[in-house]
Amino acid sequence: MVKLTINGQQHEVTADPDTPLLYVLRDELALNGAKFGCGLGQCGACTVMVDGKAVFSCVTPILLLEGRQVTTVEGLGTHDNPGPMQRAFIAEQAAQCGYCIAGMMMRAQALLQDNPAVSDADIRAALQPNLCRCGTHMRILRAVRRAARLMQTADAGSASKNQ
Amino acid sequence: MRKDYIIVSRRRVLAGTGALVVSFCSVPLLRAQEAQQSRDDAQQLPGSLKTAPFLDSWIRINADGRITVFTGKAELGQGLKTALLQIAADELDVPFAWTTLVTADTARTPNEGFTSGSHSMQDSGTAIRHAAAQVRELLKAQAVERLAVPPQSLRTENASVVAEDGRHLSYGELVSEELLHVRAVATSELKDRAALKLIGTAVERVDIPAKVTGGAAYVQDLRFPGMLHGRVVRPPSYGAQLRSVDTGAVERMPGVIKAIRDGNFLAVVSEREYQCVTAMRALAAAAHWEEKAQLPRQQELTSFLLRLPSQDIAILDQRGPAQAAHKTLAATYSRPYQAHGSIGPSCAVARFEDNALTVWTHTQGVYPDRAAIAQLLGTPPEEVRCIHVEGSGCYGHNGADDAAADAALIAREIPGRAIRVQWMREQEHAWEPYGPAMLTKVIASLDGSGKVLDWDYALWSNSHTERPGGAGALIAGQTIAQPFPKPAPRPIPQPEGGGDRNAIPIYKFASARVMHHFLSDMPVRVSALRSLGAYMNVFSIESFMDEHAQAAGSDPVEFRLKHLEDERARAVVTTAAERFGWSQRLATGHGRGFAFARYKNLAAYCAVAIESEVTPETGRARAVRAVAAVDAGQVINPDGLVNQIEGGIIQSISWTLYEQVTFDERRITTIDWSTYPILRFNAVPDSVEVHVLDRPGQPFLGAGEATQGPAAAALANAIANASGARLRDLPLTRERIKAAIAA
């Protein structure tokens, strides 16, 4: 049994410890967000956050993840109550087929959680590991910029409340 | 057997839902004369009403007023669901939120063939719009009787018919079971342009919220109770024969249910997905294959294509009397095999139960896929149901149909259990049917006034559609012990064309000839890739137009306008040039390029201007910005259209700068994203602008593939303008650019 913390919830999973996280998320925990794209860490469709850093879940065995916080796109909000990153992607209509998008969002989330005051060049550099085949790149960039604004506003809002 | 018309053969009320389910089959019962009459009548009907003429094939209304819209087309990520619902809701006068859409399903929807060729709005959108208008008028006619008022005193709004005195009846109250089960008529009372509320507006896509929150959005996300996972082991190369395989050790691995071998078809089924991947790797290691060296030499691909036997078709011969040429230019262009490269490998779920098979698939054609799978299994098509569920974007014929067939073969071995089969990355890359390699040669002359006198164009290409078809088009059908013969490749005739799509120049030339050399020997597996031959033909024609403009000492945009008579074509060219700032000076090392085409010479018009920068020392080229103008007729969802055009430009930049399938004498060697690199964020333009020329009242024109050719040629022209190097062989790699600059 490996103990995992996914989106703040504890899970004891029965998969072998060398199983990549992606298969546990999808097959054992029925989470759709992370996608199988290549299994090689080349495309980013499987990207999730581990302790706030973007990682390829397709090449990360679960035995490395005990005691760490795993976040998937399901952890950013829900259909009825979407989080800032999700609201930004909806507002910019930043998807065509959408298969790469959850991975893009998780990599962008890791970037913005670290520092929401990023430049356009920072966003492009951060998203370099993730592929999109539909050519939705311009919208993805706009959505991440919008998410950065939303997150900065939210931070400012919570900061002012705390004063 | 006749398949020219369909009639409703059976209807029954689904228990509990109250909805009607209608299934279709061809029934050669009508007398010949009636059949002919009904065919003639059907030919008058708009869009896909021609093949599915009953209104309730497209629109049903429940007693509670909820609307279900049916389409035989599939959502491929192009926003089809939203656009079709906009059309239906607007023309019916119902709230958008009250409508739901059922997409391609052989048990529920009309047969609209393939979702391809940018036909969805023309075929299905047109059918749904007319069906909705006719349904609205039928409901109004019911209200005339019930309210005893003249028809002109009634209006429709919010899913109700409203009289002048304020009395109203909801659609749910007006509808009765048989009311909508009538044949469509040829003309409809379509709403006036001014009355449209949804058509022409940027309604948000209905599918995006689930896609960004981890909802079940794809066939990959289907989970059924007791579902098992299957993986195939593909041969290492085309035509490889499985000499021996010991499946025993694999079958003893944890979670493994079964290993399946049928000739060269090899698969394994497990309880859990990763167990299955592990078992698949072990099975692949246990298999011994005999391979043949049968692929052409990559370095000699163009001469290989020229040596293949060809069927020569003169698709245009309008040669005028010979005139004295001022200048004559000749050029040869080439394109390698290029991959669809879906980010998600193909996937399907199949369940065989009570002698009937259900397949959930991201195929572009549920009906043709059903026919192929039925043939593969040797069962009647009625015992197979194919249901479209979205997959990763396909951009044409990728591995979807093959994965569906794999799942079907495996499911038959394990009745009662749903089997989910997903390909691995290297399987998608090595086994998808690629966009064919092509070669074009063009010779043309200028007269003294700088106009093209004569134009002689020839292209060499394999088939651009090897879709099923039959079981012989499927990898499973080709690899089982009793294989099905591959169907003989056939060219797609003009005016749409296949390899020769857009090979006929849209420009007015005094004299022109176009030859299509159709090559039926296919050493590499090929089929439809977004825009088919249009990508290469527009790249060639529009590159050559620039070469001529330069020879004539003319501005490239002016040169095109000089040969262009169609006012809508001129409008997109002018708009793109103006919005780009065509006459502005650019920074040193930057260049501008322009290109234009009307997709298939009958669908959307699209002009693209690109600014590129080229670093001579490295040969690295980048598209800095792109500006497009598009005329797709009446626009349903402007943001959806812009999304398609933006995406097409970026995808085409990727094809054009980086992409080629490579192989040695036996094997495909581009098997992942490191061996087949595509555009990443560092090469994304600074900006992509799309200007839409809306044409309210004009027919919908397919636009999903319209930018592939123009973006490629605009980029090549921009690189030539920036560096002085004219590249005619795709892709325009940095090595080639660097070598051309040095030459």
The description of the largest β-sheet of chain B is:
7 strands, mixed
**How many DSSP helices of chain A?**
5
Mean pLDDT across all residues of chain B, rounded?
94
CATH topology of the largest domain in chain B: Aldehyde Oxidoreductase, domain 4
**Hey, roughly how much beta strand do the residues of chain A contain?**
5-15%
Class derived from helix and strand content of chain B: alpha+beta
Spatial order of the strands in the main sheet of chain B?
11-12-9-19-16-17-18
Count of domain modules of chain B: 3
- Give the N-terminus to C-terminus distance of chain A in angstroms: 45 Å
Q: Helix content range of the residues of chain A, please?
A: 25-40%
pLDDT < 50 stretches of chain B: 1-30
- Coarse morphology of chain A: globular
Task: Indicate the radius of gyration of chain A in whole angstroms.
Answer: 16 Å
Q: Average pLDDT of chain A, to the nearest integer?
A: 95
- Quaternary: heterodimer
CATH superfamily of the largest domain in chain B: Aldehyde oxidase/xanthine dehydrogenase, molybdopterin binding domain
Q: Largest interface here, residues on each chain?
A: A-B, 57 and 62 residues
CATH fold name of chain A = Ubiquitin-like (UB roll)
- Structural class, judged by helices and strands of chain A? alpha+beta
What is the level 1 CATH name of chain A? Alpha Beta
